[in-house]
Amino acid sequence: MMQTRVVPQRGFNLDYIMFIFTRVSGLSIVLLALVGIILAMVMGARTQMDLGTLMRWTFFPNPNHVVNSDIPDVTLGWANAYWSTMQFLLIFFAFTHAANGLRMIVEDYVNRGVGQLLVRGFFFLLWLFMLITAIFVVLSS
To answer: Please, which of 50, 61, 92, 134 could form a disulfide with 83 given CB 3.0 to 4.6 Å?
Structure first.
């Protein structure tokens, strides 16, 4: 027996906003990664880091990642508010992008009702926990 399909409402609703957010967040993740690589190269990473350290720094700019390299005075150039802000933005966009993908999977494969509400709630709590944990790691490093 075929199920009837619910037609989405016109205008701004959660689905439309998250559709737009998914596109914007995906583009933002790529742009933040490019900016991170370019600025790390400008700051001297091309001569002071190997590729693995550069990628680690790009996607999680933490001064502890470059402590074991040959870079002198790590805290002067690498541990500042700019890199922390880049890290916060990258973490927020990546976690929210992934959480929205999980939300879409739940809507596709879990029947409407209490089960879908419970799984959505679990994913929301997981998103919140991961965001809080990541912010703690950024602030404590």
So the answer is: 61
Distance in angstroms (rounded) separating the CA atoms of residues 134 and 141:
11
Q: By the 8 A CB rule, do 72 and 44 touch? A: no
The pTM score is: 0.72
* AA letter at 11: G
Tell the residue number behind the tokens 């709590």, with chain if given: 125
Res 24 pLDDT > 90: yes
SS3 sequence, the chain? CCCCCCCCCCCCCHHHHHHHHHHHHHHHHHHHHHHHHHHHHHHHHHHHCCHHHHHHHHHCCCHHHCCCCCCCCHHHHCCCHHHHHHHHHHHHHHHHHHHHHHHHHHHHHCCCCHHHHHHHHHHHHHHHHHHHHHHHHHHHC
Tens of pLDDT, residue by residue over 84-130, are 888 888 889 999 999 988 888 888 888 878 888 888 889 899 999 99
In contact, 103 and 119? CB cutoff 8 Å: no
